[in-house]
Amino acid sequence: MLEKSISTLVDKEKQDDDTLVYIIDIETYEILYANQRCIDDFGSIVGKTCYKVLQKREVSPCSYCSLSHNNNSLEYPIGTHVEWENINSINHKHYLFNDFIVLWENNRKVKIQVGIDISKQKSLEKELTYEKISAISSFETLLDSTIEGILIYDKQKHCKYINNVAAEMFGYTREKIINLSALQFVAPESHALVKSHISNIDQKPYEALMIRKDGSKFPAMLRGHDLVLAGEEIRVSAIIDITESKKYEEKILKLAHYDILTGLPNRVHLKDYILRSIQRSNRNSEYNALFFIDLDNFKTVNDTVGHDIGDLVLIETARRIENSIRKDDIVARLGGDEFVILIDIGEKDRELVTNRVSVIAQKVLDELKKPYLIENYEFRITASIGIKLYNDNKLSMDELMKYADSAMYNAKEEGRNNYKFFNPELQHIMEDKILLIDNLRRAIEEDSMRLYYQPQVDVNGVTVGVEALVRWIDPVKGVIPPGEFIPIAEESGLIIELGEWILHEALNQIKTWESDKDKELWRVSVNVSSKQFAAENFVEMLGEVLQKSGVSPSKIRLELTEGILIQNLNETLQKLHTIKSMGLSLSIDDFGTGYSSLSYLKKLPMNELKIDQSFIRDLIEDDNDEIITQTIISIGSQFGLEVIAEGVETDEQYQKLCSMGCQYFQGYLFSKPKDAGEL
């Protein structure tokens, strides 16, 4: 009856198509009952030993079965419940077993064993486990593929995960780093900084100093983010070692603040020093001094031996200046051969300061004028120094530099190889000059310049050409004479821009005159300055301007002074022959006032000699001027050159020149310089 009741109960409550139900004697392992599912899978098994018929090749009780968990199975108390899992070796299904110890007929202690087939669930679980492992593996691979070190901390800021990049960065194995505190990777000097940032849920990147296992430190960029993963609060920190970036940044900073050639502070860095110096002077009313140093005729070094040797001279100059001053004084290179010294005197007495500064300046000059032995060359170089003293903040950095620069130019004008303190009166002259340069530049840009033309006539008084003479028409001052602005243009270098403008205007005027029968054959003489002629692109510029104008080159005559012609004679000859081959004609202006020499005259491809007006002025009264003039005319005749006298103001001069054989004339006797429309 008990067996039937249990069977009914089991079949009714537990059984389904995949459920196994057994009743097994726990002493003998005899199967007392088996449901239909058991019979279908394992055959006629009732009355047989369970481990022999329910598993393959088992000859003793199964070690994984609950009956075998105790050496004496009979000691299991009635009512014991055991749950366990097993994959059957016959049908290969995965079962979840629930065992219940009950009392059977004849007081036999049995186990009711119910096995539910969970093969599908286990297969799904296996797939999920594989996907989880695969996802974790992919996640770790992804993290190991980044350039950032990745650390994951728990709520207490202890490390729970680290990628290979971070492990290598800090010098730990991944196992050794687990459970270490976040601050263990931070250098002590950055603890406070990092603590302030990790309190932020989502922080912006910041820099901190990190520490490796071996104690070495390195700069890093850090960024962290708090989040909840699988119900656990964690913090993900990303770290990039920026050691190389810092080195590059320092290199860029050095390039921005230091002179590449000499290693001295440059103009940008000097500005910081000067601003601090001004503030210090204002605070304690003690004098500081600014030296502006410029080497004398340094360009000659570059021109004669090249820039590579010139650079070595500059490096040696920087070293000598540094050796001439105190340790705390500042030396900077502005560029080229210009240096600046900033000296903190620490005295309030101006006379005492002046004496001390003078000693330093002379020491620098003495050091710089010693022979330079560079490679196989020996150079003798001097310098000019301008000095500006200051003890307040009334002057800006630019003003201090300007005044020291002005004093330096005064030193050059007084013979070079000396020093001068800033002189306010001379500064006014300098400022007027600077203003004039600015106004001249603006006049050229805004087309405030005008060309006037003075006729050149032959012995019959017939105009054969004109000389182009530039005039500055200032809206306030009116006409400014060339004698006031041409020297300034030469000094500032504006003469190159002005000379090109004059050439353009002259060619445009020639083009206009081509439609005038009285002027269509006129030639225009244009003065060329030394700086303009020396420019590397001068010949190229001539060709471009002529081609663009469409004017015949034969209608342009370039006037050059003797001083231009004898400089770098070989290079000059090459340029002159090129110009001549382009169809232009050439004239030596102010002949006789410079370096007149038949030895160079015979080499020059010239067309004309121009007698300077200084010889014409006293031609009638001064026998010497008459002799010089006659000689020039004779030289021109012998060399087959045209000769023109300028500055002819009286008929008596004109007649005298005609009798001497002069061919062409220019001066007030014939016409003053006029606007093109008045000719």
Description:
- This protein has 679 residues and is α+β, with helices and mostly antiparallel strands.
- Helix content is 42%, strand content 25%.
- The chain contains 24 helices and 27 strands.
- The strands form 5 sheets. An 8-stranded mixed beta barrel has the order 18-19-21-22-23-24-25-26, surrounded by 4 helices. The protein has a 5-stranded antiparallel β-sheet with strand order 2-1-5-4-3. It has a 5-stranded antiparallel β-sheet with strand order 7-6-10-9-8.
- The longest helix has 26 residues.
- The model has no long low-confidence stretch (mean pLDDT 86).
Short description:
This protein has 679 residues and is an alpha+beta fold. Helix content is 42%, strand content 25%.
Helices and strands in order:
Elements: H1 2-13, E1 19-25, E2 31-34, H2 36-42, H3 50-53, E3 81-87, E4 94-104, E5 108-117, H4 119-144, E6 149-153, E7 159-162, H5 164-170, H6 174-177, H7 191-198, E8 206-211, E9 217-229, E10 232-241, H8 243-257, H9 267-284, E11 288-295, H10 299-305, H11 307-324, E12 330-335, E13 338-344, H12 350-368, E14 372-374, E15 377-379, E16 383-390, H13 397-413, E17 419-421, H14 424-445, E18 449-458, E19 463-474, E20 478-480, H15 482-492, H16 494-513, E21 523-527, H17 530-534, H18 538-549, E22 556-561, H19 562-566, H20 569-581, E23 585-591, H21 598-601, E24 608-611, H22 613-617, H23 623-638, E25 642-646, H24 651-659, E26 664-666, E27 674-675
Parallel strand pairs: 16-17, 19-21, 21-22, 22-23, 23-24, 24-25, 25-26
Antiparallel strand pairs: 1-2, 1-5, 3-4, 4-5, 6-7, 6-10, 8-9, 9-10, 11-13, 11-16, 12-13, 14-15, 18-19, 18-26, 18-27, 19-20
Helix pairs in contact: 10-11, 11-12, 13-14, 14-15, 14-16, 15-16, 16-18
